[in-house]
Design a protein that fits this description.
Distance between the termini: 22 Å
Helix content: 55-70%
Order of helices and strands: HHHHHHHHHHEHEEHEEHHEE
InterPro entries: DUF5931, HATPase_C_sf, HATPase_dom, Sensor_HK_TwoCompSys, Sig_transdc_His_kin_sub3_dim/P
Protein name: Sensor histidine kinase
Strand content: 5-15%
Keywords: Kinase, Membrane, Transferase, Transmembrane, Transmembrane helix, Two-component regulatory system
Domain Histidine kinase/HSP90-like ATPase: 292-391
GO molecular function: phosphorelay sensor kinase activity; protein dimerization activity
Largest sheet: 5 strands, mixed
Number of helices: 14
Shape: elongated
Strand order of the largest sheet: 2-4-5-7-6
Length: 394
Amino acid sequence: MSVELPLWRALTGYRILTLGYALALFFLNYHEYAHPLGAALYMGVLTLWMLLTWNRVSAPERCTRAFLIADLTIALAGVLLSAVVDSAQRVDGGAATLPSIWTGGAVLGLAIKGGWRWAAAGSTLVAAANLVERGSAARDTVHNVVLVWVSSIAIGYIVEVARASERTLARALQIEAATRERERLARDIHDSVLQVLAMVQRRGAAIGGEAAELGRMAGEQEIALRSLVAGGLVPPQRSAEQLAEDAELVEAVTGAPRPPVGPCDLRALLAPHEGATVTFSAPGTPVLLEAAAAAELAAAVSAALDNVAKHAGAGARAWILVEDEPDGVIVTVRDDGPGIPEGRLADAEREGRMGVALSIRGRLRDLGGTAELVSVPGQGTEVELRVPRGSEKT
């Protein structure tokens, strides 16, 4: 909800209540006016104006500049008319003007709509009208004028700061959403395109001849793509219709079905990893997660096993342990490889190799979970993936 919306609603209530106060003062002092019929005519116009426009200040789109000018004009007319319809004795004694404190509503409307500059202009006009009506700069008049002037400018400034903060927050949320989408795409690229390019480069170099040239070109494209993924480029925001079209295009090109909806047994997704060098352990009962969350968790496990195959050596063994807890699911991937040297992960991210940063930690972060990596040189590496219950892909 907008920060300024409650101010508009409060202003609506202020105008209604202060009209009632002004009418009460008028009826109580009706016989003391020098020209009571003229005063009654103005109060009738003011009441009719309020009946026709009481909800114009309930929302910014209805409170136009023309309305604010008309509102302020009626307030100023009432202040100046008070010197004509009221007795000189009452004016000199500091009697309230015909619109009384209702005038403040017109100034506050300018403050909320246009900020402190509009508030300063409106309160200055009200101050001048009050001094003309009184005929002198009496102490109580100056006190009221300064109070209206300072309070309206302060409210106008607060509104401007609130609007700037809202714009900053909205921009930050847009950047965060775009960054999360970029990281998701980068994970998909890392899990598919980059690995294919790396394989082409290695196989081409091994075969030689024209294949070596193809491998060299694939290596150049891999480096360029890694730089693009790691460069932090933020794509423009896309509509829901465009995103749906993209999803259909990806499904048509890749042949990969969209993730199913509903609970999914995580064991069925992880069991195919078991083999001669991979041991899989899980509870005897189904480990249920939302399908999208289970798919992302399985992809993170695949990325961890890919790292084992690449960096732990051909003879390294890996173990997958699934733990089903009341508040979440924990999957641990451990290997007996040489471990990761200190600082190697940070270097890999700077080089654009985002396997751990995106394919593992990024996926778990999007699920509201965590990914903890513990590695001791010479003693292997352990990755603990924790996903809370009710996680859904964002």
